Amino acid sequence: MFDYRVSCFPVTCRKSHCIYLHKLLSLLQIPRKMMLFFLLMDHMTHETSADIVFLLDGSDEMQESERLILDFVREFVNQLEIGPSKVQVALIQYSAEPTADFRLNTYSLKENVMSHLSNVKLKGGFTLNTGVALDYVKNNVLTTSSGSRAQQGVPQILIILRGRKSEDDVLGPVDRLRKAGIALFSVGVNNTDTLEMEQLAHSLRAEYLIKEKSDFPFVKEQFSSMARDIVFLIDGSDDVRSKFSAIREFVAKMVDSFDLDQGKDKVAVVQYSNNAELSFNLNTYNTRDDALKHVTSLKPKGGRPQYIGAALQFVRDNVFVSTAGGRHHEGAKQILVVLAGGRSRDSPRGPASMLKAAGVVTFAVGSRMSNSAEMQVISSDPNYTYSIPDFVNLPRIQQSLMSHLTQMGVEEETEQGKNLDYFNNLDKHLWLCETRKRCHNMN
């Protein structure tokens, strides 16, 4: 029997949650479970693409688990839609130093990947330098030359299977992965060091402990149905007229990734300058195609100067409300993305505080002409503030912002979950373990 721990570290966010599973009969029972969490977090679906790197502890200590580890990878890959426009996978082993078995752009057909996996053997070695391996993946595998599609907005995912505690530092490499917008999933096998797992999760607000029976499908069903109301508040003033096409393209790419057709996500767009103007509301469109058609036809409203405070108040009073399609009363996460091209003539502090008090999570993106202090005031968290030289540079932040947004529905629910009925339905199998506190049953 193997004890293992599965930790979900979407390291693009400071706050998240971990999934722990204990004492299953075999590692082979994990892949379908982890797949549920990829679906849950919107990192990947059958309609989207992803770059996935498997990083395996190939040290001598893992030799007795070799078959289970490699079967895990094969089982996982077998469930993916492999292809240059779908999911790409890479396999890296490490002990003292990392070795690439194959990279993201090595194979374009699933049968070739599976054929290679059927012949893989663990490399061996005594020393275990997980930190070195993490940096290697960031600098040599999740790169354009190795097939990474991060610049196209494709999710970058690293799954690490490891045994004992690393002999080098892991916190620095994990932080660098986070800053690069890479999501890390860690599977601990055999002699997993729990302290190191906690160190990796040092910024986590909450952890879930699930004792597996038949809970995962239920958890997935509940979490994947979490709704998001996403509003874009964009600068449409005369000052950004020449750059508005870049703003429009950025919003279109974001909207294209949302789940509007199934009703999970709703989206609205508001422009502002000297006043705020609604382009379309949360309840205007029920399909992604219809919303995209409107977004791609947007033209700047014009006018000056910019009054961001008044625009924030407009969004609070007229957009995040039930009459306009807002679903806060249904438990939907309400998210505001502000794109600012200049300083505000009024103070955004009061309206920003009211939005935060209402539970709205705000991201602020400012160009060089905006006021960085204002952007900090507007955003709900310092990590939710982005500064770019020009709006043509918006693609640089797309992956990071998308990672925050896709995690938002899951992450924020951990704070509200005590009051949700589905936690009670999990009975004794679901526990909430707050950081630095003892675990306690939710019932």
Automatic annotation (TrEMBL):
<feature type="domain" description="VWFA">
    <location>
        <begin position="51"/>
        <end position="226"/>
    </location>
</feature>
<feature type="domain" description="VWFA">
    <location>
        <begin position="229"/>
        <end position="405"/>
    </location>
</feature>
<keyword id="KW-0130">Cell adhesion</keyword>
<keyword id="KW-0677">Repeat</keyword>
<dbReference type="InterPro" id="IPR036465">
    <property type="entry name" value="vWFA_dom_sf"/>
</dbReference>
<dbReference type="Pfam" id="PF00092">
    <property type="entry name" value="VWA"/>
</dbReference>
<dbReference type="InterPro" id="IPR050525">
    <property type="entry name" value="ECM_Assembly_Org"/>
</dbReference>
<keyword id="KW-0176">Collagen</keyword>
<keyword id="KW-0272">Extracellular matrix</keyword>
<dbReference type="GO" id="GO:0005615">
    <property type="term" value="C:extracellular space"/>
</dbReference>
<protein>
    <recommendedName>
        <fullName>VWFA domain-containing protein</fullName>
    </recommendedName>
</protein>
<dbReference type="InterPro" id="IPR002035">
    <property type="entry name" value="VWF_A"/>
</dbReference>
<keyword id="KW-0964">Secreted</keyword>
<dbReference type="GO" id="GO:0005581">
    <property type="term" value="C:collagen trimer"/>
</dbReference>
<keyword id="KW-0732">Signal</keyword>
<dbReference type="GO" id="GO:0007155">
    <property type="term" value="P:cell adhesion"/>
</dbReference>
